Give the backbone structure.
Amino acid sequence: MPELQHTLAVEYLKKTIFDRATIKNHSRPEIAGEDHYKTYPEVEKIPLPVDWSLQEARILPLLQKRRSLRRYACRQLTLNDLAFLLWATQGITARVGAHFLRTSPSAGALYPIETYMVINSVENLQAGLYHFAVRQFELEKISCDINGQDAAHACLDQDFVAKGNLMFFWTARLRRSMAKYGERGFRYLFLDAGHVCQAAMLAAEAIGCGGCPVGAFYDEEVNKLLGVDGENETVLYAASIGSK
């Protein structure tokens, strides 16, 4: 087993370190940019509701209550519950110049994180794989042939993944960040994913649910499940959400 200093992770960190002497002359590869919003034009669209007065009144105690939850009740979530979860993680809150700011922070306001869900039990929604279209604030139904068991299998066969109301998978569009920040931008992808996941955990508490972040998965299997290529877009993080 190699020593820590010889691992790829440490080598990457060393090669992307900023310091005062070199930051102004720091070189970066030329990487083409891309659109800030991903959508699936050909799939069914489901508009999302925006009335969350009850959830907003319960926001303050959530940090104290948050714990990872792996055992879930059988209660279905409503579409309104799901809409609140999505807005709390990636909802647009303001516009500053060309940037549409969101609930979670992002380096350079570039928002490279995309949100996918494997839905198990949400009222008025078929089980299956969905994508969150941020700017339109709607769901995009990608496939009804993917279920919680498929998600669990790709997540090291962790049973609780199949038993929640839904499973979030967060991918990164690498070019969206790296076109501006070069190799350093690769770090920001993970930071952005962490911001989004924490918001999801707190929002889950606000609707009487709990969640469990998941970093243990077979990357290529999850990418195949979501239909992303693993190069321009790849899975970084996941989380199961379920009723208490």
About this structure: The CA atoms of residues 154 and 221 lie 6 Å apart.
